[in-house]
């Protein structure tokens, strides 16, 4: 049974695609469901904005082993979100 609660749990666990599918199913059954509409817009916005992966920074993150590297990665993230 697909519910808003299940979709929220998936979303919180990082299972964005699965959550999105549930929200879409809910909206098909309940076209006026505001929570599903908001969630779909939110998740679609996340997908559009962050489609690609910065492979260089991903490798850097996986291989970090010092406080200096952690701080450098943290600065990069801060720039990304601003």
TrEMBL record:
Domain of life: Bacteria
Protein name (Swiss-Prot/TrEMBL): Tetratricopeptide repeat protein
């Amino acid at each position: 049974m697909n519910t808003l609660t299940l979709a929220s749990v998936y979303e919180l666990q990082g299972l964005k695609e699965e959550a999105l599918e549930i929200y879409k199913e809910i909206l098909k059954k309940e076209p006026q469901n505001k929570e599903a509409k908001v969630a779909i817009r939110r998740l679609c916005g996340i997908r559009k904005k962050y489609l690609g992966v910065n492979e260089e920074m991903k490798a850097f993150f996986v291989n970090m082993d010092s406080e200096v590297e952690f701080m450098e990665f943290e600065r990069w993230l801060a720039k990304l979100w601003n």
